[in-house]
Amino acid sequence: MRSMRRGTKEMDLILMRFASLRLAAMDTDALDRYDALLTENDQDLYQWITGQAEAPPDHARMIAEIADATEK
């Protein structure tokens, strides 16, 4: 639910798609990383996912997974 009620339509669409593709297969560590990522604000997330800004190291791996999943 937190993936699709973000506040900006862009992030709703990006994270909804990612969650539908990958969430069910995530292990506990990945779910924890995703949960931590969801605490960030949409403006930062959008810039990180679209490559407009560099993601912080603690989120870089998850951001790369989201960007990869949503490009296809």
Automatic annotation (TrEMBL):
Keywords: Chaperone. Coiled coil: none annotated. InterPro entries: SDH (IPR005631), SDH_sf (IPR036714). The keyword NAD does not apply. Belongs to the SdhE FAD assembly factor family. This is FAD assembly factor SdhE. It comes from Litorisediminicola beolgyonensis. The lineage of its organism: Bacteria, Pseudomonadati, Pseudomonadota, Alphaproteobacteria, Rhodobacterales.
